[in-house]
Design goal:
The chain is an alpha+beta fold and 94 residues long. The protein has one domain (15-87). The chain is 23% helix and 37% strand. It has three helices and six strands, in the order ββββααβαβ. It has helices at 36-39, 43-48, 66-77, and strands at residues 2-5, 8-11, 15-22, 27-32, 55-63, 84-87. Strands 5-3-4-6 form a four-stranded mixed sheet. The protein has a two-stranded antiparallel sheet with strand order 1-2. It is globular and about 30 Å long.
Length: 94
């Protein structure tokens, strides 16, 4: 099913989204469940919420649209205004 919200075309269908946070670079990237980064060796680390020296994966939850996942990520990471929150460049079509 397709729906247009605020001028953007989005596909409805619940999917799980993850965010990769790197606090030394002040950024977070939103990844969909089918992202190559999540289906690689990093998958177990991402799903476990493992914390590295400079980074951490977060399970954002299930959302009907990518826009809803992005809104959740912005609420979580934008308390520090220097953070840049964006979609992953590889799974942007999810």
């Amino acid at each position: 099913m397709l729906v247009v919200l605020a001028g953007e075309l989005e596909v409805l269908g619940f999917g799980r989204y993850y965010a990769y946070e790197n606090w030394t670079r002040y950024r977070a990237r939103v990844h969909c469940e089918g992202c190559p980064y999540l289906t690689s060796a990093r998958s177990a680390r991402a799903r476990s919420g493992d914390i590295g020296a400079n980074d951490r994966w977060h399970d954002l939850g299930e959302f009907a649209t990518p826009g809803q996942a992005m809104a959740q990520a912005r609420r979580r990471f934008r308390s520090d205004k220097s953070y840049k929150v964006a979609f992953c460049g590889r799974c942007v079509s999810c």
